Amino acid sequence: MRIATSLFGLIVGVTIFTSPAGAENLSLRIARADTMIDPNTERPAVGVMLTGESAQAFARFTQANVGRQIRVIANGKVIASPVIQTPIVGGKLQFSGSLGTKEASDLANSLSADGGTVEVEPVEKKP
Question: Looking at the whole model, is its pTM more than 0.90?
Answer without folding.
Answer: no
